[in-house]
Specification:
InterPro entries: AAA+_ATPase, ABC_transporter-like_ATP-bd, ABC_transporter-like_CS, P-loop_NTPase. The chain is α/β, with parallel strands linked by helices and 248 residues long. The chain has eight helices and ten strands. Bound molecules: adenosine-5'-triphosphate.
Length: 248
């Protein structure tokens, strides 16, 4: 239907021959990868390997020096994709002098969430990240982990078809981390395409497929089992090291 969101099968991500250079520094080199619709795809790599730079380009916040990125059939960056992509940055983009509820209201209107659905959806996402009791608190009084959780709630608010999460569970305790991952898996099954960066190996195991980045290059792509089998490794960490990665 014209003007309607695409069908689930259209919401994949295609990255083709992407370079990103900052001055003389080549931060991403010839990255090509495909995230299939409704897949949970993990980007794994040590600090400084280029994960954030790559997800920013995919989300349309930064632009490649060379190469193309297509999300949901649309070449990025495109301002009108804002409402279709949920992006959670590594540093929280929150208004600290507002309450959580006020932040959610602001982003809900920015995303064009119909006001009828707004209240209910805000309650749902806050419940999901276990912040219901802190809805009216000023964000300046939130801990680091609470801010991460609120950022995640905001990224989920408009039920985006594509969810891009940059280290979403940093500073979040193991029990809540497990419940957030359960929810991400459920969203994947329900048709959301999810791209997530992580340092955490047990999170990597929960992804359908993984891309391993080192020094701005993609050194391996596959399911966790494929990557382990290919390198005769017992764990993803061992596989990563076998592919030439370094510890994060
Ligand atoms: N705006 C910029 N100008 C110059 N260099 C940059 C810029 N943004 C990123 N870089 C460099 O690009 C490289 C990759 O950074 P990036 O943040 O993408 O890595 P990362 O894998 O996400 O690391 P981390 O896990 O620590 O977040 C780093 O060497 C960083 O210093």
């Amino acid at each position: 239907m014209p003007g309607q969101e695409g069908r689930t099968e259209e919401w994949g991500i295609q990255v083709s021959h992407v370079d990103r250079r900052f001055g003389k520094k080549m931060v991403l080199q010839d990255i090509s990868l495909e995230v299939k619709p409704a897949e949970v795809f993990g980007l794994l790599g040590p600090s400084g390997s280029g994960k954030t730079t790559l997800v920013k380009i995919i989300a349309g916040i930064d632009e490649a020096t060379r190469g193309t990125v297509v999300v949901g059939g649309v070449q990025m960056p495109r301002i009108d994709m804002l409402g279709k992509i949920g992006y959670m940055a590594q540093s929280d983009a929150l208004y600290t002098d507002l309450t959580a509820k006020e932040n959610l209201d602001f982003f809900a209107s920015l995303f064009g969430l119909p006001s009828k659905q707004r209240k209910r959806r805000i309650e749902e996402v806050m419940e999901l990240v276990n912040l219901t009791d802190s809805m009216k608190k000023l964000v300046s009084a939130y801990s680091g982990g609470m801010k991460r959780r609120l950022s995640l709630a905001i990224a989920l608010l408009h039920r985006p078809r594509v969810l891009i999460l940059d280290e979403p569970t940093v500073g979040i305790d193991p029990a809540l981390r497990a419940s957030i991952w359960n929810e991400l898996r459920a969203m994947g099954r329900a048709g959301t395409t999810i791209l997530v960066t992580t340092h955490v190996m047990d999170e990597a195991e929960k992804c359908d497929r993984l891309g391993m980045l080192r020094d701005g290059r993609l050194i391996a792509v596959g399911t966790p089992d494929e990557l382990k089998a290919h390198t005769h490794s017992a764990t993803i960490e061992e596989a990563f090291l076998a592919y030439g990665g370094v510890r994060g």
